[in-house]
Amino acid sequence: MFLIRTAFFVTLVILVMPVPEAHRADVERAARFAAREASASCELTPDLCAKSAEYWTTLRRKVEIGAGRSINLASRTSDEGPPSRR
What we know:
Number of strands: 0
Low-confidence stretches: none
Structural class: mainly alpha
Mean pLDDT: 80
Shape: flat
Order of helices and strands: HHH
Largest sheet: none
Number of helices: 3
Helix content: over 70%
Distance between the termini: 45 Å
């Protein structure tokens, strides 16, 4: 699980970083290659893909719940105004 988390966060960092125009084609080619390799691993280990899909569904639900709570909190805070100091 540690490796999956590490790969996820490294991927997020890489996606956020800007890419110079001169290297954009290389980055796109590398991304396509990585996607092909990831999809090929599902053919070799279907159990891994099934478990990954389960984890992805759980993660997506948690993000949806967290986002909903954050939006509710932000809308309540904006309706009430800034918090008062005592």
